[in-house]
Every structure is written in C-alpha cells, then in structure tokens.
Amino acid sequence: MIDRRRFLVTGAAAAAATPMLAACGRKEEPVVRPEGVPVSPFGKKSTAEEVTEGIDLKGKVALVTGATSGLGLETMRVLAMRGAHVIGTGRTLDKAREACASVPGQTTPVALELERFETIATAADQVRELGVAIDMLVCNAGIMALPKLEQVYGLEKQFVVNHLGHFILGNRLLPQVKAAKQGRVVVVSSYGYVWAPPSGIEFDNLSGERGYEPNKMYGQSKLANALFAFELARRLEGTGATANAVHPGIINTNLGRHFEAWKRIAASLVGWTFMKSVEEGAATSCYVATAPALADVTGRYFEDCNPVVPVAGKHMDDVTLAGQLWAKSEELTAQYLV
C-alpha cells in the first residue's frame, strides 16, 4: 500500500522540479534554421535507429566516448548495427569490455578516463596502433552539475572532463580523422550553454573557486564543447573532414547522478512528460555522424536531428572567444598533445 503522505510530498517535489529539469532542454521559442544547411525529415521523437535506417556503415570506423551506458551505449549499438567497427571507451577496461560485449557487431573496448590526461594519451596511442582511419569520432562522455566544487589539475572538474579531455583526444586522433574519406567529429554539447557565465568562458576563474555554481560551470563546459567543435571546423577547412556540435535533449541517464535525490525521484515520476528516451536522445549524434546529406556541413549546431541557430548573445557565434579557448586549452594540455 502506498504511503499517502509520502506520495503527496514526493509528487509536490516532482512538480516543483519539473521546470528545473526541463531547463536542460530548449525553451519553447521559435527555432531558427541556418541558411544553406539541409533540413532532415526527423525530429524530437526520432530514434537513432530511425535516422540511420538504410545507411550502410560497413568498412567504417567510429569511436564513441562514454560508451558504457546511456547515450554512448546506444550510439555504439546503433552504429555497430549499421555495420561500423565501433571503438567504445569506458573509464575502465572492464567496463568498456562489458559494454562492447553487450552489443552485436564489431566493437573494440578501450580504457579512457577523461579526468586523467595520461589515460587519454594512452588510449589515443592504442587507437592509432589499430592502423585504421576514423570516420566518426563521437565525443559523448560527460558529467553534469557537480553539487560542490571539485578540481582536477587545479581546474574545475566539469571543464576538465567535458572539454579538456575531449580536446586532447580530438587533437591526438585528428590525423586518423583526416585520413578517412570523410571524417566527422561530433561533439555532444548541450542547450545548457545558455547557463555559461556572462563572459562565456571565465579564463581568470577556470579553477572554479570564485562563485562556484553547478549549472554555471556545467554551462561553461558545454559552451566550451561547442566552441571546440566550431574552431576545429575552421581548422579543418580544406581537408574534407568536418566538426559539428549537438544537443541531445534532456534524457534521464547517469548524467544526472549528481542531482539531489528529490530531483532524481522527480525525473523518474514526471520525466516522461518532457524527457526523451535514450533511443531518441542518441538520434542527433547518430544523424550528424552518418547522414549523407551532411557530408560537407561543418561548424554547425544541431538539435532534434536538425541544424539550429544558437541563442543570440550566448557566445556560440563568438569566433574570437573560440580562438582564445583553443589557445588556452593548448596551454593547459600541451604535454599531452604530442
């Protein structure tokens, strides 16, 4: 029998939490499409299987970070289903092996811990030793809204894990991406970029010690993800390789494991009213990684399997800031880029 008082209290908490959780997704505002970028027939409710239907990935190689659960696991499963050889990374080799073994198709497990830069270098070396070009590099793994300040290398942890870890990996594997016939880098960002500080990236506060706020620091890291993709696209001009950023939507996955217990309960109780399923959440990454129509599309931001013009005034179009971030990231990770 359900405890009525507990049900009412939990229900009230769920109702209160709904707008907070929904804020991870795009607000109900007009969507503006960039000119000259193909619009797909897919949308918010499309799944990764649906957007890749009929696409033959045999002979192609993909690398997906954070492939042990959630969106990463679904992305790996669907790309492997379509015939790709998928290199799936996990924080430990055992976790990566377990995830790779759980999906049909050709997979290779690799240990990679984004907060430990030496493991990224080792993982990249192992991938290079496979002697294959990388057709799809999906930078998916991440952490969100750490309740209190945590630091790695003296830097705020979300910035390190979400951005700098992928910055190292992307740069070390860039020769393999450029070696592919049409290599694609897909960086999982988030609509959470709107939470970033007013300056966009607080270069004088990358330690996070001044005014730490979980969402602000998460937003900064997600803005950094997108700016990395956009600056990389500029640097890849003339190579045939592309780089794009995507917002997967709001999905109830392990990404929210750092939320307070009542928010997690709320997500379980009412999340179905506005959240995507994992299958739907992985769709945009899979679409951007595989769609033939996007062969020449680069430096763009995608939501719900379609290109979107980011919110004005939130630094997503700040070319100068993107260049500054790249230079600072190189400075912070120099010894791991070689």
Note down, in words, how this protein is organized.
The chain is α/β, with parallel strands linked by helices and 338 residues long. It contains 12 helices and 10 strands. Strand 1, helix 3 (70-81) and strand 2 form a beta-alpha-beta unit. Helix 6 packs parallel to helix 8 (214-235) and helix 8 (214-235) crosses helix 12 (319-337).
Summarize this structure as a short list of keywords or feature phrases.
338 residues, Rossmann fold, eight-stranded mixed beta sheet, two-stranded antiparallel ribbon, globular, disordered N terminus
The domain tally reads 1
Which topology does CATH recognise? Rossmann fold
If helices are DSSP runs of H or I spanning 4 or more residues, what is the number of helices?
12
Net shape: globular
The main sheet orders its strands as 3-2-1-4-7-8-9-10
Helix content: 40-55%
The average pLDDT score comes to: 89
Kindly provide the name of the CATH class.
Alpha Beta
Largest sheet: 8 strands, mixed
CATH superfamily: NAD(P)-binding Rossmann-like Domain
Instruction: Specify the CATH architecture.
Output: 3-Layer(aba) Sandwich
Order of helices and strands: HHEHEHEHEEEHHEHEHHHEEH
| End-to-end separation | 62 Å
**Count of β-strands:** 10
Helix-strand category = alpha/beta
Percentage beta strand: 5-15%
Instruction: Tell me the radius of gyration.
Output: 19 Å
Low-confidence stretches: 1-23, 261-274
